[in-house]
Design a protein that fits this description.
heterotetramer; A mainly alpha; B mainly alpha; C alpha+beta; D mainly alpha; B: mainly alpha; C: Immunoglobulin-like; 29 helices; elongated
Chain lengths: 609, 205, 838, 104
């Protein structure tokens, strides 16, 4: 009897696909619907067939955590993106509702992540074989650092989409597809612990962003999307090379292939190899952050991107650079990271905080100004990471999240006046306070958050970074000048933001076109309200963030110090060494050498003979 | 001088003469006849080399079909179609240069190889049915069946392709405006000198 | 049953939450609630905290009384003072390799902050009452009170904070509120610019505070008051080694203390903190924002720029007195800055005509006095002056406000309604304002019975007699100069004279003489014949604009209260009359600070008489110049040296100097960085690489000629080269084996159908036809012998190539280095020998 | 040894034909002539295949392969001429130089 039941259960996904296909409204005759239904069923069969069924449950997932939660969060938007393609183009309302429902479900799923206290070790870990012969595994897990970044993106994507539905009327289907794919890719990048998987999501993320900037962008949208794509791609090529080299070194030592972060983390490379691998990874992430010399793509991308695109770009995409640096650069190359931290901190302060602020001050375009302000804020974040102290790193993560919220809100508000006046030049505005009081109040409030007035979230991040930098010992005697430079950045931040606010909002209303501007409407208010609320919640109660990320930041800093000692001990050698396994919660999910049985045909088996 | 070697000499001369006329002759028809000569010469050589089936095929397919096709097309286009365009100062040196170099290489190569051959390899005594249709047939339908089937597919594709390309645009629906000017077929970016009626495509901002 | 236990004193929550709720309610729902509700909300939001502060103060008094009773017996008993805590929630925790500290949102009130709370809420309440009528007809009524309540909340957070970060929250909160309030009438660009300027200059101060906090965290490991006090012991002994000053740059000729070449951490922290205080309390380098802040409504100036916010700097110095005294250099800097500011601001106040500007500069000058007081270690005197100044300066500002209010009703232009020259003789029209203004003028001038006299004398005595000694600070080279006492006292005295002079001038200009305000109304015709002065009551009313009239009660009542406080508050610590209550009250706060301060009491005995003489000199002078001579001497002096008068009138052109110096450099830096960003950073990475790619593209495009035959020719050439490579035989020999025993092995590279024939003995002839397939050959050489090995290679096509390989075995008898060199070169040569073609 | 009795003679002959064909393709600008010279080259190869099959007479692969070459050549000729036809319809001439619009 239960064989029949099992078969029934087995059939469920195909049945669902068939029903959904059949009910597709845009075909009248039944046989056309039947055809679409069967095609849907077949495609599901194909996907399931493709799916590696041998779920090698290597790590013992914690009892109270549902193993597939991360898969749901990552693949729900991706599958929905494909589903949107099948929805009818003629009914944008259906598209919008479907997408918002999917993103809403995704947000709720990510809220479930908070249910578990982020104690030591990886949580919601799920591991299956993906390409067994190359040792590539589908290894996703989450810890204190990435849980908040996931939540930030699941929060900001629906908001960005909600706003862009208001302003973008053409090609709604492609819009929904792009945002869903972008969201899925970002989720994947934040949770993947297999370097190959991370690289796949890292590259996948670029494609929808190119669409968003390229299709709905401003006048020079194509040029800006090219620049954005080429900058990130160039960086990630270096990273790919480094990944492959490390996998090869690991293979030459251990004998089996793996791209797993936990395994490659144990590698201690000789000096020059370690430096070059670190440089490869760091370049990819510093371009994405963006750090000083590679930041010129950000203002162009922001100016040309539509409002929704700008929000996502500012709120989440930049954080991938900094997250990548914490996870991979500081995770795998403790020695070089430690040595390079002083110089990089200098670049972060001088090139990021000062240079970003100075460039922002004299901009004539609001979005370009806010883009440069992001460069300055992320200068703070990187400084926090380079300080290598618990306070500095957690301050950097808090600053990442707060920057996502405040700059996301800023871009949203800039979008509000852009939709009304279709210009971003500061000179075209003036004295808006009289005409749009509520909007002005919100803008000044978010400006205060961006400037970092205490009580708002901006201050908490900057404060912890400055404190962390001063007490940092990886910066050595550069700690004090870096901290003083960073605190000086606080003045410059006030300078350019307030001068912009004054030129746009205060002063006489002399431009006739501004007189008839309507105040912020309910749709926009609904979009900005959660962000403004979070500004105060995280400003007054940062412990919500800090308590959850405490253990993982502590582990990162501890491993950084240990790794450095191992690196210096190994300094003279010319061949790589593998640190013994630490054991403990942070090694759960470590790949084990494949049993000879199921890898008979494996590449390495052949290679070794 | 056995009759065999005489046959070889005659057909060799025939082939070379045909080849030369094909390459050198001004009018395409004479070139086609040259090609026909070469093909016949090779057919004769096939006979000498005990490959009856192939010489038959050579005569039927090559002489009968391909050369006929060429002549047909030449007549269709008019024998003066290939005449030199008036003043075109097309760089005169490229083709002769290429031909000359190739000639130099060919002579060097064959001289080199010829010199290297010390002992000429004679023919071995073949089995009685060597070259007959039975032998070729069995070989073809047993060992090389897949290429044979693929060749049939190739031929069908070639026929369909030839028809599609050859027919051009007449296949439009009847109400389609009859194309007076052949230039209109061509919708791609037009060279200056062909720009008869096509307005310059507006450069999108 | 003690509902408010000492360590969980939730009354503080009441004090703090009411203004915040008031601000929120007024701000968000103000427009819908209407004026009366907003007024009620605002007044209660300040009234209740005032009552709560009074309750808190009484509890503090009880605790002190109990301590006093307990310790009455022993003479040397020092009461350790009462401190009531309230811990709201844990804000964030900082951890680093050196330690770990949790910053919590905790508030505490002790003697010092108890009094400040009373002042802030008390004067704040009075000012709120005053502004209900002053701002009555302003459309942004609810917005004004929301900002004012938010200001009081921030100020309370500042003074009640138990740790430096919480103080910093209040610190920037008041900065934000002053930005909003100064730029309240934002339609006018000047006001918005003034607001922005105030916020930016305060931000420069906050920068100092941030750095100080970072240094404190690093060197004392904690940021709360107790934490800092507990382990700030060895601060003076630590040096901050950021970069070694190269000897040649050591400016050895400069005095050591100026060079500060070995700044102790205590000095660095002190200077950073003082930078913060200077920014907030408008001391010399960063005072420029206060005069411009007069652009805000007058009650704002009264509350923020007289009574509360500007005194935050002095409060911080008093709170961290134990830290400042650790470095005499910092104390000296504070004292000198205070004295200089006092004199400097007073000079500008001489010539200003706008009455609010005069009061603003007088505030800056009085703040200079306060810093002079705390700078020389007389913390109680400095704090006492804060108290008394809060009262009389608030009263002066509110008095000026009511004058402006009436003038405004006459002429609706803000500038002329504030210009003193249009006033005069208002004594008749505004008796209450006049009396209160007069009392406050005398108080600030320092006339005997009033509060100003006592507080200023205490500061002057302190200035003359106090010296701050570096208690054991090993590295701090700075010693308190002995001339400091007399110089500071002298500057204080000059300041006192000037203060008395310009306050008297201000009073006379507004209230004495005849009203010069008739003519300012447009279209007014001088009624012919009679003199206005004496028929003001019954004569025909001047044609346009109402005559100046007394302000409504809501404005005069606070004036009276403040004037009374200004008169009476002197008794809190009138040394001459023997009352020392305030000193005893604040002793526990400054207990371990005063250890470093040495006072020789008897030198200060003559000071009160000298000070009173100075005051009367100033008042008499002003009376002589403006009343008896009707202001002629002032005008003659102005004509005699117009350039100087113009310079002082333009406020020594400090603003222009700052614009030129700092703002201009920042602007050029911004221009340069934008250019750099566009053309250099972007230029190199984006544009240059794009250009290179495009250039390469256009070069390669030349090869595409478009003709089939050209491509075919290229293909032919390619295939020729390719065939050539494969057809022609190659002979490359690899030689390995070690040099020491002379045993070499020659390995020829394999190829398609290759056959080899060797000539090992180098005599030139090869074994003719034995082209064997073996491509290796071994050869033995003894030392120092060379041989030319020959090799013939034949490929499949029978083409042959011959190669000779010179082999030399080095002679070990050569010296060591040579061999090593040769060794290196030899193996290099060994690795890849490309034989010479024969 | 008699002419025609040794495979090297056939080798020389087919080499000559092939060379002529190649030169024809490279030198002549008339597309038809170029197509014909391609046929020449193919014929030369066929000849060589058959002659070497005579040398190694064990199996018939040489001749079968030649047969396939003929088939392919026929198909190629057909399609080539169709293209020439439509090219002529557009360009009005069969000069191979005219067809260079794919240049830039």
């Amino acid at each position: 009897m239960n064989a029949l039941r099992d078969a029934g259960i087995e059939m469920i996904p195909y049945l669902i696909a068939f029903v959904v296909g059949y009910l597709m409204p845009w075909r009248k005759e039944w046989f056309e619907r039947f055809a679409v239904g069967s095609v849907a069923a077949l495609s599901v069969a194909f996907v399931l067939g493709l799916w590696p069924d041998k779920a090698v449950e290597v790590a013992e997932t914690r009892p109270e955590e549902w193993g597939h939660l991360l898969n749901l969060i990552v693949f729900l938007p991706l599958i929905a993106a494909i589903a949107v393609v099948f929805l009818p183009r003629q009914s944008p309302k259906l598209l919008k509702q479907f997408t918002m429902v999917v993103l809403g479900v995704d947000f709720l799923a990510s809220l479930a992540l908070l249910g578990v206290p982020m104690s030591e070790g990886w949580h919601f870990q799920y591991v299956t074989e993906w390409v067994p012969s190359l040792g590539i595994r589908y290894h996703v897990a989450i810890d204190g650092i990435s849980v908040w970044l996931v939540l930030l993106s699941t929060l900001s994507t629906p908001i960005a989409l909600h706003v862009s539905f208001g302003s973008i009327k053409k090609r709604t289907k492609e819009l929904c597809f792009a945002f869903l794919m972008l969201h899925g890719a970002m989720m994947g990048a934040f949770v993947s612990l297999d370097l190959f998987l991370f690289f796949v999501f890292w590259e996948l993320m670029l494609v929808p962003m190119i669409l968003i900037i390229g299709i709905w962008g401003g006048v020079e949208k194509i040029k800006a999307s090219y620049k954005f794509f080429l900058y990130t791609m160039a960086g990630s090529m270096m990273m790919l090379a480094a990944i492959l080299y490390m996998a090869w070194v690991f293979h030459s030592i251990e004998g089996y292939w793996t791209f797993d972060y936990l395994a490659l983390k144990r590698l201690v490379l000789p000096e020059d190899a370690a430096f070059w691998c670190f440089a490869g990874f760091a370049l990819a992430f510093l371009i994405k952050v963006p750090m000083f010399p590679f930041h010129t793509w950000l203002p162009d991308a922001h100016v040309q991107a539509p409002t929704g695109g700008s929000i996502i770009l500012a709120a989440v995409l930049l954080k991938l650079g900094t997250y990548g640096y914490i996870r991979f650069c500081m995770g795998m190359f403790e020695g070089p990271a430690w040595e390079a931290s002083a110089t990089l901190a200098g670049v972060a302060v001088a090139g990021g905080i000062f240079y970003g602020a100075l460039c922002a001050w004299k901009q004539s375009d609001i979005k370009r100004l806010v883009a440069y302000s992001s460069v300055a804020h992320l200068g703070f974040v990187m400084l926090g990471l380079f300080s290598g102290t618990h306070a500095g790193v957690s301050g950097a993560i808090v600053q990442m999240i707060n920057h996502g919220i405040s700059t996301g809100a800023l871009f949203l508000l800039v979008g509000v006046i852009y939709d009304r006046r279709h210009t971003r030049q500061i000179a075209d505005f003036g004295g808006l306070a009289k005409v749009m009081p509520v909007y002005t109040a919100l803008f000044v409030l978010v400006t205060m958050a961006s400037v970092g007035v205490p009580g708002t979230n901006g201050f908490v991040g900057e404060f912890m970074v400055i404190m962390g930098t001063m007490v940092s010992d990886s910066l050595g005697r550069h700690a004090t000048p870096a901290a003083v430079g960073a605190s000086f950045g606080v003045i410059l931040a006030a300078l350019y933001m307030l001068s912009m606010v004054q030129r746009v909002f205060f002063g006489p209303l002399n431009n006739p076109k501004n007189e008839k501007l309507t105040d912020i409407n309910s749709r926009e208010l609904v979009a900005v309200a959660p962000l403004v609320a979070l500004i105060f919640v995280f400003g007054l109660f940062p412990n919500i963030l800090l308590s959850r990320m405490n253990d993982s930041v502590g582990a990162t800093v501890r491993h950084l110090a240990e790794g450095r000692i191992a690196y210096e001990a190994h300094a003279g050698a010319t061949t790589a060494k593998l640190r013994p396994k630490r054991g403990g919660p942070w090694e759960a999910g470590h790949p084990s050498p494949p049993q000879v049985a199921d890898v008979a045909v494996a590449l390495n088996a052949g290679a070794d003979k | 001088m056995t009759p065999g070697s005489a046959l070889f000499i005659v057909s060799a001369v025939l082939c070379l003469a045909g080849a030369v006329t094909t390459v050198v002759s001004r009018s395409p028809v004479r070139a086609a006849m040259g090609l026909l000569g070469t093909i016949l010469g090779i057919a004769l050589l096939f006979l000498k080399l005990r490959a009856e089936f192939l010489s038959a095929i050579q005569l039927i397919v090559y002489a009968g079909a391909v050369v006929v096709l060429f002549v047909f097309v030449i007549m269709l286009l008019g024998t003066d179609a290939g005449s030199e365009p008036e003043s075109e100062a097309r760089s005169k040196i490229a083709p002769p240069l290429a031909g000359g170099m190739f000639l130099a290489f060919a002579t060097a190569l064959f001289g080199l190889l010829g010199g290297a051959i010390k002992t000429p390899t004679a023919f071995t005594v073949p089995s009685p049915d060597h070259g007959t249709i039975e032998a070729v047939g069995t070989e073809m339908f047993q060992n090389t069946l897949v290429p044979f089937e693929l060749t049939t597919a190739l031929l069908i594709v070639a026929v369909v392709g030839a028809i599609a390309v050859g027919r051009g645009r007449q296949g439009q629906k009847p109400n389609q405006r009859v194309i007076k000017n052949p230039q209109d077929f061509y919708v791609g970016p037009v060279m200056e000198r062909d720009n008869v009626s096509q307005p310059e495509p507006k450069e999108s901002v | 049953m003690d509902i408010f236990p000492t360590n969980d004193f939730t009354l503080l929550a009441v004090i703090l939450s009411f203004p915040l709720i008031g601000a929120f309610v007024n701000g968000v729902f103000g427009k819908r609630l209407g004026k009366e509700a907003v007024t009620l909300m605002a007044l209660s939001a300040i009234g209740v905290p005032f009552l709560a502060s009074v309750a808190t103060f009484s509890k503090l008094l009880d605790i002190r009384a109990v301590q006093h009773a307990a310790g009455a017996g022993s003479a040397d008993h020092v009461e350790q003072g009462a401190r009531l805590y309230w811990h709201a929630w844990d804000w964030l925790d900082l951890a680093w390799t050196g330690g770990e500290t949790t910053l919590s949102v905790a508030f505490s009130v002790d003697g010092l902050s108890g009094i400040m709370a009373l002042v802030v809420t008390g004067v704040g309440f009075l000012i709120h009452v005053y502004s209900t009528s002053y701002m009555a007809d302003d459309p942004g009524y609810h917005r004004f009170f929301s900002y004012l309540n938010l200001f009081i909340f921030s100020m309370l957070v500042l003074i009640l904070g138990d740790s430096l970060p919480v103080l910093f929250v209040g610190w920037e909160g008041v900065g934000l509120c002053s930005y909003l309030l100064i730029g309240f009438w934002f339609q006018d660009d000047a006001n918005a610019a003034a607001g922005k300027k105030a916020f930016l200059v305060n931000r420069i101060g906050d920068f100092g505070l941030l750095v100080a906090m970072a240094l404190l965290l690093r060197y004392t490991g904690s940021l709360s008051w107790e934490g800092i006090e507990a382990n700030s012991g060895n601060l003076p002994n630590q040096i901050l080694k950021v970069w070694q000053m190269p000897e040649v740059l050591a400016f050895s000729f400069l005095p050591d203390w100026l060079l500060l070449n070995e700044p102790t951490i205590a000095t660095l922290i002190g200077l950073c903190l003082f930078l913060g205080c200077a920014g907030k309390s408008a001391q010399l380098p960063l005072y420029v924002w206060l005069p411009d802040a007069m652009a805000g409504p007058t009650p704002v100036s009264a509350l923020i720029h007289a009574a509360t916010m500007v005194t935050a700097g002095v409060y911080l110095v008093c709170r961290l007195s134990f830290l400042f005294v650790l470095s005499p250099a910092t104390m000296f800097t504070i004292a000198m800055t205070g004295a200089l500011t006092a004199v400097f601001a007073a000079t500008i106040a001489f010539v200003q005509n706008d009455i609010k500007k005069v009061l603003a500069y007088s505030t800056v000058s009085q703040l200079g006095y306060m810093f002079l007081g705390v700078g020389v270690g007389a913390f109680t005197a400095g704090f006492f002056h804060v108290l008394t100044h809060a009262f009389f300066k608030a009263c002066l500002f509110l008095g000026a406000g009511s004058v402006i209010h009436t003038m405004h009703s006459r002429i609706h232009d803000t500038d002329s309604s504030q210009d003193g020259r249009n006033m005069g003789g208002l004594r008749a029209y505004m008796p209450v304002t006049c009396v209160t203004f007069f009392v406050s003028c005398l108080a600030i001038a320092g006339v005997f019975p009033l509060s100003g006299f006592f507080s200023k004398d205490a500061i002057l005595i302190g200035a003359l007699t106090n010296t701050v000694s570096s208690s054991g600070g090993v590295h701090d080279a700075f010693v308190w100069p002995e001339w400091a006492g007399s110089v500071l006292f002298g500057m204080g005295l000059i300041g006192a004279v000037m203060t008395a002079f310009y306050m008297a001038r201000l009073y006379i200009m507004i209230f004495e003489g005849d009203f010069k305000g008739w003519s300012i109304v447009a279209g007014w015709k001088e009624p012919e014949g009679h003199d206005h002065h004496d028929d003001h009551g019954d004569g025909d009313e001047p044609i346009d604009g109402p005559a100046p009239h007394e302000s409504p009660n809501a404005m005069t009542a606070p004036l009276l209260v403040l004037a009374a406080l200004a008169a009476v508050s002197g008794l809190l610590s009138a040394h001459d009359l023997g009352t020392h209550w305030l000193d005893h009250w604040l002793d526990p706060v400054f207990a371990n600070a005063l250890g470093n301060v040495v006072t020789d009491a008897e030198a200060g005995s003559m000071v009160p008489y000298i000070a009173s003489a100075a005051t009367f000199a100033g008042l008499g002078g002003a009376y002589f110049v403006y009343v008896m001579r009707g202001g002629d001497p002032a005008r003659e002096l102005a004509e005699k040296v117009p350039a100087l008068h113009e310079l002082i009138y333009d406020k020594w052109r400090i603003d222009e100097l700052y614009d030129e110096l700092f703002v201009a450099t920042l602007e050029t830096l911004a221009e340069v960085s934008i250019f750099l960003d566009k053309w250099v950073v972007d230029g190199i990475i984006a544009r240059a690489s794009a250009g290179v790619v495009a250039g390469a593209g256009s070069v390669l495009r030349l090869f595409q000629v478009g003709r089939v035959q050209a491509y075919a020719a290229a293909m032919v050439i390619g295939s020729v080269a390719f065939a050539g490579f494969f057809l022609l035989p190659h002979a490359r020999v690899q030689l390995n084996g070690d040099l020491s025993n002379g045993q070499y092995e020659l390995v020829a590279s394999p190829g398609l159908g290759y056959q080899y024939s060797w000539d090992l003995d180098g005599d030139g002839e090869f074994a003719e036809d034995d082209f064997a397939d073996k491509n290796t050959a071994n050869i033995r050489l003894n030392t120092g012998k060379t041989v030319e090995v020959g090799l013939k290679v034949r490929n499949a096509f029978g083409l042959i190539r011959t190669v000779t390989i010179p082999l030399t075995r080095p002679d070990p008898s050569a010296d060591e280095t040579e061999t090593a060199g040769v060794q290196g070169r030899a193996t290099g040569q060994l690795a890849d020998i490309e034989g010479r073609q024969r | 040894m008699l002419p025609g009795s040794v495979v090297e003679h056939y080798l020389a002959l087919s080499g000559a034909i092939f060379t002529l064909g190649a030169m024809g393709f490279l030198m002549r600008r008339n597309v038809l002539i170029q197509l014909m010279s391609i046929e020449l080259m193919l014929n030369a190869v066929n000849l060589l295949l058959v002659s070497y099959n005579r040398v190694h007479a064990g199996n018939m692969t040489g001749q079968v392969f030649a047969f396939f070459v003929i088939a392919v050549a026929a198909a190629e000729a057909a399609v080539g001429l169709a293209i020439v036809l439509s090219y002529f319809r557009i360009r009005g001439t069969v000069q191979s130089d005219e067809a260079d619009s794919l240049r830039h």
